[in-house]
Amino acid sequence: MQDRYLRKVNYMRISITDLCNLRCQYCMPKDGLIKKYHQDMMTFEEILEVVKSGVKLGIDKIRITGGEPLVKKGIVDLVEAIASVEGIKDIALTTNGLLLKQMAKDLKKAGLKRVNISIDSLKPHRFREITRGGDLNAVLDGIQEVLHLGMSPVKLNTVMIGGFNEDEVEDFVRLTISDNIDVRFIELMPVGEACGWAQERFISNEEIKKRIETLTLLRYDKHEDGPAKLYQLPEAKGRIGFINSISDHFCGSCNRIRLTNDGKLKPCLHSNHEIDILQVLRSNPKAIDNFLQRAILSKPEKHRLYGVEQEIGYRNMSEIGG
């Protein structure tokens, strides 16, 4: 289905929980989130109904997010159920990787195609600092496990934070040489309670790119459906991507819609506009298709993170899944 700006929307990101086993500084408050009541959260059965409705409108790509989706009981069963929906061509998952080593095999068997792993430092002490206590070795073990299982390319999402991890750019880039790993540098986004923190530490991807010009980057021109501008080192197995969410936004080609764990459809990550589909599911399930269509048609032309009509999302990133 196309939205009002003739963008084909075929990608649904589904946040199945806002809980997480980390407390990353730009994503979640130090003390975590206030737990929601069980009845206010979508069940897996309700999520599946929205997926089936989405397929009717052209949705064929699903990404499961959180919070941290691997802390959600029954995640493997949900992956299997979504993968079995006729019309779904791709199902992926974004994770912090802490539980990946022990769960990856079952997830692949259930139908999971790919994983994105969030990792912002390759130095143990820095990783603990930005995540407020995370174990870097557990994440690295998870990366090796999915490589072993052939779930490639493995995509590493790395948020560049001014004054914190810019000096690790080349270390991340070198990960692409011998393994089928895509490292994607993502600009820090002002979202939720971390808005001020993020604005103070923003560094553009153009600045990051300048730091690695000595590595002779080559433009990778193969078409790929996604926001990253791709490059590749000579003879490297993996690729390097730059996701310029702020400095050079990709709103003009945005093909996604988001479903939160409390049943809200978000046409835009950075907008506070939401459509309550959970209420519809429980009161008038036959109207789901219509409400999903309305959500797609209400996608804005672009986000308004800056400018006269500035709009900053009030939800923390952990609540909407990125």
From TrEMBL:
Pathway: Cofactor biosynthesis; molybdopterin biosynthesis. Its cofactor is [4Fe-4S] cluster. [4Fe-4S] cluster 1 binds at residues 20, 24, 27. GTP binds at residues 13, 63, 94, 155, 256-258. SMART domains: Elp3. It catalyses: GTP + AH2 + S-adenosyl-L-methionine = (8S)-3',8-cyclo-7,8-dihydroguanosine 5'-triphosphate + 5'-deoxyadenosine + L-methionine + A + H(+). Keywords: 4Fe-4S, GTP-binding, Iron, Iron-sulfur, Lyase, Metal-binding, Molybdenum cofactor biosynthesis, Nucleotide-binding, S-adenosyl-L-methionine. PROSITE patterns: MOAA_NIFB_PQQE (PS01305), RADICAL_SAM (PS51918). The keyword Disulfide bond does not apply. Binds 2 [4Fe-4S] clusters. Binds 1 [4Fe-4S] cluster coordinated with 3 cysteines and an exchangeable S-adenosyl-L-methionine and 1 [4Fe-4S] cluster coordinated with 3 cysteines and the GTP-derived substrate. Residues 4-228 form the Radical SAM core domain. It holds the Pfam family Radical_SAM. Its EC number is 4.1.99.22. SUPFAM superfamilies: Radical SAM enzymes. It is an enzyme of class 4 (lyase). S-adenosyl-L-methionine binds at residues 26, 67, 118, 189. HAMAP family: MoaA_B. Monomer and homodimer. PANTHER family: MOLYBDENUM COFACTOR BIOSYNTHESIS PROTEIN 1, MOLYBDOPTERIN COFACTOR SYNTHESIS PROTEIN A. Catalyzes the cyclization of GTP to (8S)-3',8-cyclo-7,8-dihydroguanosine 5'-triphosphate. Belongs to the radical SAM superfamily. MoaA family. This is GTP 3',8-cyclase. The gene is moaA.
